[in-house]
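User: Last request for today: this protein with magnesium ion, please.
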Amino acid sequence: MRRYFPVPTRLAWKVWRRNRDVFFKTYRVNFLPPFIEPVLYLLALGYGLGMFVGDIGGVPYVSFIAPALLAISMMNASFFECTYSSFVRMYYQKTYDAMVATPLSIEDVIAGELLWGATRSLIYSSAMLVVLVAFGVVALPSSLLVIPFSFLAGLLFSGIAMCFTAVSPTIDTLNYPAFLFITPMFLFSGTFFPLSVLPGPIQVFAMAVLPLAQVVTVTRSLTLAELSPVLFLYSLAWIASVCTVLFFVSIHLMKRRLVI
Amino acid sequence: MQGSEETTGVEGEDKSTRSPIIRARDLVKNYGNVRAVDTISFEVMPGEVFGFLGPNGAGKTTTMRMIQCVSPPTGGTLSVFGLDVRDHPADIKKWLGIVPQETNLDPDFTCIENLLVYARYFDIPAKEARQRAEKLLAFMQLEEKADVPIDGLSGGMKRRLILARALINNPRLLVLDEPTIGLDPQARHLMWEKLKALQGMGNTILLTTHYLEEAERLCNRLVIMDRGKILVEGEPMDLVRRYAGDEIVESEGSPQVIACLEETGCRYEVHGDMVQAFSDQPRVLAKRILDTCNPGRVFVRRGTLEDVFLSLTGRDLRE
Ligand SMILES: Nc1ncnc2c1ncn2[C@@H]1O[C@H](COP(=O)(O)OP(=O)(O)O)[C@@H](O)[C@H]1O
Ligand SMILES: [Mg+2]
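Assistant: Here's the final one, the structure of the complex with magnesium ion:
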């Protein structure tokens, strides 16, 4: 069966550890941005713009966008890792070639990359959570559940990213998903204004297909400690199932690209 | 490095009774419509240094990649350590040491970290890995570079580090794809020295090269490959004797000399303004040319693998 269906093994964690080691070698560069960025957004948007916006559905604007900032950091940390960074390792550094010359299979390598992308999502959003807690704009203790959830959300965006990486002819063509998919999603997923202000069809579209919209829904439920169970469970199930499918699809696509 | 307990070249045992490390039968590899490897068969025995010699595009790298279980064969059978490459890649790769044609050291790490991270892929415990890594860096004369990032290494050092990396798992088979490609003569000689030492320890080594001298120096047995096919197989000296003769007569290729050679009926080849003649009695032939054909100069030299190579693969340029 292994020949036809991609089955990674525990060796995937060796790849994960390689990436983790590199990350912590350069942690100074890696750790500052996730602390600074949310502060800037909170000040500029939450408090600056929030002055004019006031409340959204009884929630102060700064508390409304706090979960969106978390969701966006999950998306960026994992998506950009498994597109540009993975492409550099695959194509320029030949890291994958070196790895598959050991008992690691290509399935293990890609699975390790995806797990690492998910871990970056967890690291960055957790760092950001610390800042948001310090500003007192997220509810405790429910917000702590964001930490495990960020791994799942990160795995989802890693899988999406890896599919693009697998079919991208050059590193430049990765700009297409970055600008045409990630940027619009960043704006139209209920991040900085509620989806309900958009025309009906767009609302339906967002809730049906935009991954970030699902992640924002779940994260906001946790940081506001306000749960609408149907929507919450729908989004969670959506994320879990799409994540599972893309995990295997992205490995399959990578295998098709690299095993020649 | 092969520890004494891991030695594969069992001394005193008859070669024919041992099973081959690699067995390829009618091996084929297509890339789309391009046939890169065209129905080749060969066997590599324990303890030997086996060479693949051939011009660019001959299919050497493709063959190595199939042996490394990273490129699935299109047809034929290929087994390493008696295991089929299609069915047991992880079990085979566990015991392989690979030096790829293209340097793929990890630029995010230092020299020693490269070895340690690689050791982890083989499930070698950290303490053991560090011991092996230090020993290998010393063996490759890279101790001072242990904590230097990869960017700070010369080309020769990078190749030696890759060889060190390939030895981290005490491999039962070393596969070296153009181990000295792009190196200056000093670096190349140092690499040869290390490979000779590894050979002396009883390692089985498979190497590809397009440097004739390298093959002549290192290989016990070799094949010459061109356009996906194996043209000949044998021991370097035998091949020279068979296809070039022990000695070759070389002379200026003036029409007069060529007319002379036509008369003697011996085999000759014209290359540019030189002519090479092959004969059982090269010295007699040389004297005759000198005495009767009025050549500018004529001399007798030892036949080399290069002569075999060029006469089999032709002289047209491959790029
Ligand atoms: N990934 C590939 N896709 C298509 N053709 C390839 C690929 N790799 C090698 N080839 C072709 O296969 C042939 C053999 O190449 P290779 O095995 O690299 O030769 P060598 O190592 O002897 O120089 C060449 O014609 C080369 O162009
Ligand atoms: Mg090659």
